[in-house]
Amino acid sequence: AIRMTQSPSSLSASTGDRVTITCRASQGISSYLAWYQQKPGKAPKLLIYAASTLQSGVPSRFSGSGSGTDFTLTISCLQSEDFATYYCQQYYSYPPEVTFGGGTKVEIK
Amino acid sequence: EVQLVQSGAEVKKPGESLKISCKGSGYSFTSYWIGWVRQMPGKGLEWMGIIYPGDSDTRYSPSFQGQVTISADKSISTAYLQWSSLKASDTAMYYCARFRQQLPRDAFDIWGQGTMVTVSS
What we know:
The structure holds two protein chains of two kinds.
Chain A: E1 4-7, E2 10-13, E3 19-25, E4 33-38, E5 45-49, E6 53-54, E7 62-67, E8 70-75, E9 85-93, E10 97-100, E11 104-108
Parallel strand pairs in A: 2-11
Antiparallel strand pairs in A: 1-3, 3-8, 4-5, 4-9, 5-6, 7-8, 9-10, 9-11
Chain B: E1 3-6, E2 10-12, E3 18-25, E4 34-39, E5 45-52, E6 57-60, E7 69-73, E8 78-83, E9 92-99, E10 108-111, E11 115-119
Parallel strand pairs in B: 2-11
Antiparallel strand pairs in B: 1-3, 3-8, 4-5, 4-9, 5-6, 7-8, 9-10, 9-11
């Protein structure tokens, strides 16, 4: 099974900061990677798919990059509503086998 | 509006059975794979398995194979997750989610609101 490792597991940042979260796959997954945002008590929300494609309605301050084994989610100018936990997810495997990263909690400094 | 609406919270005793549901609307329910995801209290997301409502083709995560059953009734656009004998360790929030495209090799773009299952004696 493909393992997804996110880092850091948590970070503290201030409004207006640039934030970067990384996700590493245990083997190459091309660009079969998504990023989600989850707020407490809510379902995850899709932010980015295919490693770098912004989901409709998601603010442009979110961006994704990478391919193969190393991926990055960047929030260019952190807003108050961005404090949440972020997860990466690979969907390269076939027959289908989805794997999520362990999550990165973005907290207010 | 495309949405998935899940059944309400459940409180059960160890050993009891349970079936929770996920009803799709606003799209062709039989054309998109649906997945189930577990989130234990304070923990991350775990993929449990997927089903294609069109023909009930089902795939399970090795971690959940034999522990749960995923099914669907396309006549009422509803997917199900069921347990025959619950354990305390099944206490978690369970989400259903739809794959973004009509193949099970994509991100989940639509999520249900979650069903909290509490198993306690």
